[in-house]
Amino acid sequence: MTGAPIGDNGGMQIEGSVAVITGAGSGIGRALAREFAAAGATVVAGDVSSGGVRDTAEQVRSAGGKAVGVVADAATTEGITSLVDVARAEFGPVDVFVVNAGIIGAPGLGDDEADWDRILDVNLRAHVRAAKVVVPEWLERGHGHFVAVASAAGLLTQVGAAGYSVTKHAAVGFAEWLSITYGDKGIGVSCVCPMGVDTPLLTGITESSDPAARMSAAAVRNAGEVVGPERVAELTVEAVRAGTFLVLPHPAVLDMYRQKGADYDRWLSGMRRYQASLGG
Predict the structure, then answer these.
(1) Is residue 103 part of a domain?
(2) Domain at 105, CATH number
(3) Which of 164, 182, 257, 264 is catalytic?
(4) Quick check: is 264 in a domain?
(5) Count of the separate structural domains present in the chain
(6) What family is it from (predicted)?
(7) 164 catalytically annotated
(8) What pTM was computed for the model?
(9) What domain range is 66 assigned to?
(10) How many other CB atoms are found less than 10 A from the CB of residue 177?
């Protein structure tokens, strides 16, 4: 049995579906693997960390779910294809693909073009490459659901980290394009945009020796509550089931986004003041 759309909203039946989740070795990705499995999906958990992804799969199985861990670089077409091939061989065709893997990248403008190439690959091109792999099959089958784990930085911005801010904006834009282009063809799209989440990524920049990285962390932590990854995962699964596009674990982000659109210059001025208050 594979998942299928329910109703006219493009929502996915989670029970019996096959879900691939990238960046599943820790943080939000691990929580997503556990939550999808608890909702009845079989899970292929992918990550570049062999130990992390092995532990994630074991946690899912220990809780009574079905999962396999795969070491793969989801920023590459080869890595994405390997995840889809394992899913098909172990469980069946992929119904849900969650592009969660992400990096913070270099602070500021970055000193090396390679930094920009890497963050573009991980935070943006991975979404494009995943869609190229799964969307054609979903069009043939008449259903599928694509989940882009972006960030509130994709709706607002990220103080201190140009690469992160730019790529998260682009990830949101790509998710919008997918929904517009394929939403009437049985393909659902959800875009997850949290602020602070208690993950190794946030811990890493909080403890960084680089002042710009620490300022980025302070901007995130001071903007609102730092939630657990389990909350993000819970809301994401609900969105897939309901066919909802925008997932906001921090509801205040919507008000901030509206304020930004209502008066862009005022919002930019306010962000400059906020940056200065953080020592930037």
Answers:
(1) yes
(2) 3.40.50.720
(3) 164
(4) no
(5) 1
(6) Belongs to the short-chain dehydrogenases/reductases (SDR) family.
(7) yes
(8) 0.92
(9) 5-252
(10) 13
